[in-house]
Amino acid sequence: QYANKVKNAQEAHEAIRPAGTQFADPQVVARELGKPAAQLYEMIWKRTLASQMKPAQKEQTVLEIVVDDTRFKATGEVLLFDGFYRVMGVPKELTQNQLPPLEEGAALACTECRVVDHQTKPPARYTEATLVKEMEKIGIGRPSTYARTIEHLLDRKYAEKQSGNLVPTYVGVALVRVLENHFEPIVDYQFTADMEAVLDEIARGREQYLSFLKSFYYGSGERPGLEQLLENRIESRRACTLPLEGDQADVELIIGSKGPYLKQGDRTRSVPAGVYLGDLKPEKVQAILEDDSANIPLGHHPRTGEPIYFRVGRYGPYLALGESRNKSVPQSISRDQIDLDWAVQWLALPRKVGVHPETGEEIQADWGKYGPYAKVGSENVALPRGTSPLDVTLEDILTAYRARQARNRKPVVLRQLGTDPETGLELVLKEGRYGPYVTDGKVNASLPRGENPETISREDCLKLIQAKRSAPPKKRRKGKRK
């Protein structure tokens, strides 16, 4: 009899399921379908039979050899009952790991002695397969949601793939700390597993969904509900400060807006890309803190007296004004070009350039995530590459602003032409980004070159729109594969 290994398992999602009780012999399948199909069938056939058989029984023997004050240990196994091994085959290591017949107190001769260095390894990181196996064991999630769960972890950057393993990122670790600190009752494994069971009971009609939702939101007994948990103030600083292993109480690992960094007193260092929380052993932490190659002092700010540093972080070079402000530096600016005066000007951005001659709105130049840009009133305008916000002129910004307005200009209605006798839709003549055109709201037809939109007749506009409507759709040009 086959029994589910996982509580509330929905095993109808599995791709291959044995049906019936009569299965063809693999040799018969090989004669009828050929070797490749027979090999696949034999693998499924063996697994099907093995799943119904009893487990194997093994006897383990531990041998202790005492030499003066030193003890050696050897372990051997003997197969007492083969069980499902009769179909799947006995593992090679089981046949090789047998001890010779010995008696207590017997004297042994040493024929060979080898010194082998063995170091214990930490538990392996989860892979996609082992994570799904763990979720099945705990009883959370469904087979139809496992793939989406892992995809969600990777899309949100809560975890990254490294050599096939799922490595938690600093953002993922901080998120887990927020959930555990403030929503512990509802992110508990047992709570989630119990919820799966209750949802199944609701689906079968044995439980009322309304009473379950009320207890979940308002709480029941000593368990607080979601409403009460949401009222608690989330301490982001506590969640974004992570503990370090070993004797490192004076070092803080902080997740900032620009990435994780280490803080020891007044000294801060960005954590290099590719270094994860599990990699921050004491020796690695000290190596990062003592690396001054990416932390160059430039001097002190003439007005505030704060120190200014040139640093290289996980997202590139930047200037740091003490602990109060960071500002990214363009990759095109070499280290030799950055001195104290330039750094003071750069940290002072955004720079007021002038005012718009027509609207009187203030215009500022700045450097952002995507490069140089200007702010005209409440609108942001991208500036050409290579433009420096320190010396860009008002004329250059106005030129870029007018070009942006032209690109985003809405069509202007020139004439109303009445209704189309075929469709009953209103015909309108408009001036658009690429010139005048006639439209009925669904189909657009450009006016021929040289045609004056002020003198063109309604009949000619009807012909244009009808010709465009009856024309076959244009085939889209496919890009070449690289």
Q: Say how many strands there are.
A: 22
Biggest β-sheet: strands ordered side by side in the sheet: 7-8-9-10
β-strand amount = 15-25%
Structural class: alpha+beta
Shape assignment? extended
Uncertain ranges: none
In oligomeric terms, what are we looking at?
A: single chain
Treating each run of at least 4 consecutive H or I residues as one helix, how many helices? 16
Task: Give the biggest sheet.
Answer: 4 strands, antiparallel
Q: What is the CA-based Rg, rounded? A: 36 Å
Task: Please write out the topology.
Layout: H1 26-33, H2 35-52, E1 57-67, E2 70-81, H3 85-88, H4 92-96, H5 128-138, H6 143-155, E3 159-162, E4 165-168, H7 170-182, H8 184-187, H9 189-203, H10 209-218, E5 219-220, E6 223-224, H11 226-231, H12 236-239, E7 241-242, E8 252-256, E9 259-264, E10 267-270, H13 282-290, E11 295-300, E12 307-313, E13 316-321, E14 325-328, H14 340-347, E15 351-355, E16 362-368, E17 371-376, E18 379-382, H15 394-407, E19 412-419, E20 426-432, E21 435-439, E22 444-446, H16 458-470
Antiparallel strand pairs: 1-2, 3-4, 5-6, 7-8, 8-9, 9-10, 11-12, 12-13, 13-14, 15-16, 16-17, 17-18, 19-20, 20-21, 21-22
Helix pairs in contact: 1-2
